[in-house]
Specification:
- The termini are close together.
- It contains 11 helices and 17 strands.
- The protein has helices at 2-22, 66-69, 88-103, 134-141, 192-203, 241-255, 273-299, 301-323, 330-357, 363-393, 405-437, and strands spanning 26-33, 36-43, 50-51, 54-55, 63-64, 71-78, 112-118, 121-129, 147-152, 160-166, 170-177, 184-190, 212-214, 217-220, 232-235, 260-268, 327-328.
- It has 2 domains: 2-22 and 272-437, Multidrug efflux transporter AcrB transmembrane domain (Multidrug efflux transporter AcrB transmembrane fold, Up-down Bundle); 71-268, Alpha-Beta Plaits, CATH 3.30.70.3400.
- It has 438 residues and is of the alpha+beta class.
- It has a 4-stranded antiparallel beta sheet. Strands 10-9-13-14 form a 4-stranded antiparallel beta sheet.
């Protein structure tokens, strides 16, 4: 019994915290039907909460995608005419990587940056939810990536001192494997002019690190062990294959600068609008109320357990949306609503099994057996859905699968909802039913 009480206390603390984060700053709810009109207004009290140096007040609002909040839609055309065709895709991948890093300066967690080829023209499409200043975005995104090798300053002049060795002096960068350790390393080749500059710089920096900067931000700081001549060098370290490929792409982005030109820009208004969003919220509240009535009519007292689990699922999920944060789009809302249905489905499987088992054994035993037997069905259904969500999210960027942000947003919210529904169904519902039975 003590174990059950301690679990109830943990559940209560989680729900109090999640409810506070999930509640909107302000909310208005209007009901206008024949012979009845009511307006509900709510404003959340502000608390100065800092948890492990993390300010929770900065995550009090949901991040909305381009279709819900509006933003900037920009199309850049890359000039790849001066690049060898064998290295064209490498240059475009590097350019995309640089633009994604620059976009993060706007504080956008999931911008949409994708490559597109149309009628022989290479373009990069950038969508920035919530960003309305297209001039600022263009000045930051549209400049060519600047790669510079730097030296460490002295005590009198601390900091990083850029050298005259730049991306223009870097011929190529490739991932190879060290013949001794078998680990991936990055091989860099310099032009004839870059070879001389690199030899001079390494000669005066033996035993020191040589930071490599792109747009003023360090991407690597290899240690110079000796003077390097011949125009070839190896950057080694404890790299995974993905880390080595990422660094090589960034180096090539500076070695093969691709000028880009803005060919289209527009500020996109919210496709749904604030009024439509409010109606969607109202519709969601009405739908949950109908589910609540159904569960109470069919399962009587057990219906209250299902409602509490559904409430827990909702506030925990919205809390996670804000804390992660997740950019919420219309497909993302669809993923959330679908996971709500699966959360209720888990409770129905458990309750139906419990109704059968309590006829054969004591209530306490029936409860444990029903959860154990229902788990097989819940597990199989959720694993199948998680596999689907994994394919739609396409975390490895397979070219033959979807790479669009809205599709990935749907997959992420669906997968997160499934994990939360497992927690609420198998931990919260189970703990409450144990407490009631005992």
């Amino acid at each position: 019994m003590k174990k059950t009480i301690s679990r109830l206390v943990v559940i209560l603390l989680i729900l109090v915290f999640a409810t506070y984060i999930a509640l909107p700053q302000e909310y208005f709810f209007n009901v206008n039907v024949p012979y009845f009109s009511y307006q509900f207004q709510f404003k959340k009290p502000q608390l100065d909460i800092n948890l492990f140096g993390f300010n929770l007040n900065e995550r009090q609002n949901l991040k909305l995608g381009l279709d819900l909040a509006g933003g900037s839609h920009m199309v850049f055309e890359a000039d790849t005419s001066g690049i060898d065709q064998s290295r064209k895709q490498l240059a475009l991948d590097g350019l995309k990587s640089i633009i994604e890093k620059r976009v993060n300066l706007f504080g956008i967690s999931e911008p949409e940056v994708r490559l597109s080829t149309f009628e022989g023209k290479d373009r990069i499409i950038v969508e920035l939810p919530g960003v309305k200043d297209t001039k600022e975005a263009n000045s930051l995104i549209g400049s060519t990536a600047q790669l510079v090798f730097a030296e460490l300053g002295s005590e009198d002049n601390p900091g990083l001192i850029p050298t005259d060795l730049t991306g223009a002096d870097l011929e190529s960068s490739d991932v190879i494997y060290d013949q001794t350790t078998g680990k991936p390393v990055i091989a860099i080749n310099f032009t004839k002019e870059g070879e001389e500059k690199f030899a001079e710089i390494t000669a005066r920096n033996v035993g020191k690190v040589l930071p490599i900067l792109i747009d003023g931000m360090p991407i690597s700081a290899p240690l110079v062990q000796e003077k390097i001549t011949g125009g070839k060098a190896i950057i080694s370290g404890d790299f995974s294959l993905n880390d080595a490929k990422s660094l090589s792409i960034q180096l090539n982005a500076g070695a093969l600068p691709v000028p880009v030109t803005l060919v289209e820009q527009r500020v996109v208004g919210a496709a749904l609008g604030s009024d439509s969003i409010q109606k969607s919220i109202n519709a969601g509240i009405i739908g949950i109320c109908m589910v609540a009535i159904f569960m109470l009519l069919i399962y009587k007292n057990l219906g209250f357990v299902a409602l509490f689990a559904l409430f827990s699922f909702s506030v925990i999920t919205i809390c996670l949306y804000k804390l992660v944060p997740i950019v919420l789009t219309l497909p993302g809302i669809a993923g959330f609503l679908l996971s709500v249905g699966m959360a209720v489905d888990s409770n129905i499987l458990i309750f139906e099994r419990f109704k059968e088992e309590k006829r054969r054994r004591l209530l306490a035993d029936a409860l444990e057996v029903s959860f154990g037997k229902a788990w097989d069905s819940i597990r199989d259904a959720n694993i199948a859905t998680l596999v689907t969500a994994f394919v739609l999210a396409n975390p490895f960027d397979f070219s033959f699968l979807h790479t669009s942000g809205p599709v990935r947003g749907f997959a992420i919210t669906l997968a997160l909802g499934i994990f939360v529904s497992l927690f609420t169904g198998l931990f919260i519902s189970r703990t409450i039913m144990r407490a009631f039975i005992r």
